[in-house]
Structure formats: C-alpha cells, structure tokens
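README, section 4: Worked example with a bound small molecule

Sections 1 through 3 covered apo chains. Here we extend the same pipeline to holo records, where the ligand is supplied as SMILES alongside the sequence. The molecule in this example is zinc ion. Nothing else about the input changes; the structure line simply encodes the ligand pose together with the chain.
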Amino acid sequence: MQLISLNCNHCGAPLEVAESTKFVTCTHCSTRLAIRHGDGSAFTEQLDQIGERQEEMLDRLERIEHHHAVEALDREWERELVDYMVTDKHGRQHLPSTMSVTMSFVVAIFGIFWTVMAGAMFPPMAVFGLLFIGFAIFGGLKTHQKAQAYQEGLRRYQSRKAQLLREANDDRREVEK
Ligand SMILES: [Zn+2]
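The generated complex, written as structure tokens:
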C-alpha cells in the first residue's frame, strides 16, 4: 500500500494516507476532508467547502434553467406574434393597433359620404360607396378582433415572463440565505 503525504486544508497538519483513500478526518483538528488528486499532486479539501460549491453549482444551474425558460417563452411569443399580424394596404405585415381600427372607421365614413353624394347625383355610383362601407366594417371588425387577441396574448406573455423572473429572484434569495 502506497502512502501519500498531505496537509490538512484547515489547520495545515501533515497527514499520511493510503493513495486510494478518498476521505480522511484530520487527526489534529478533526476536520472532515476529501482527498483530491490534481495533476501529479494530491491535496485535501474541507467537505463543507465542497458542499458550498455544490450549492453554488446548483444555483448556477437553476439560473441557466430559468434563462432557458425565459428564452423559450420569448421564442414562443415571437411565433405567436405572427398570428396577430394584419396586412395593411401596402401588403406590409404589422401588429394591429387602434390606429388600424381608426383607419377602418375613416374608410367607413368616406363610404357613407360617397354613398350619400352619389345617391343624390348618380345613384348607380352609390354601389361603390356601399362596398367601401362593407369592406371597412369587415376589415375593422377583423382588425379589432386581432388587436384584442394580440393584447390578450401580450398580457399572457408578460405575466408569464414576470412570473419566471420572480421565480429566478426567489431562488437566488434562497441560496443567499
Ligand atoms: Zn486539520
């Protein structure tokens, strides 16, 4: 059996242990020690320190997990956003706003104005006005629905994200205790 010479990591007392030993209690100060084998040399480590390090690693892992959860939520939200997009008259996709609903309202007003004017001057042209009104109401309702769905989705996403961040902070505080 080969013996190796070590020093207690706590009090510095010399220790002699078998090479295969993994744990030892210091004969001088009774500290529980783990024997680590570095490259070519061995050294002792207090078991409490190891415990601390494990806690630190768990904390780090938890933080990474939370980070991933937040990232996954963000990605999911980005995919969800596509469903809320409305196409404007230039063919561009954008998020529904009260502005796009207001635009539909303006178009409807224009349609009414057109219908009234054409009805007085040249009735067949009033049909276009009615089409405008129909188009505006249909578009406005659709945009309004999407805007509402978007607002709901946004609230869901924000509360879930806030929840995740709260949890991350709670975990951190627990470790710091
Ligand atoms: Zn010692």
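What to look for in the output: The pocket of zinc ion is lined by residues 8, 10-11, 13, 26, 28-29, 31 (CB under 6 Å). The domain at 3-51 is CATH 2.20.28 (Rubrerythrin, domain 2).

Section 5 describes how to batch many such records.
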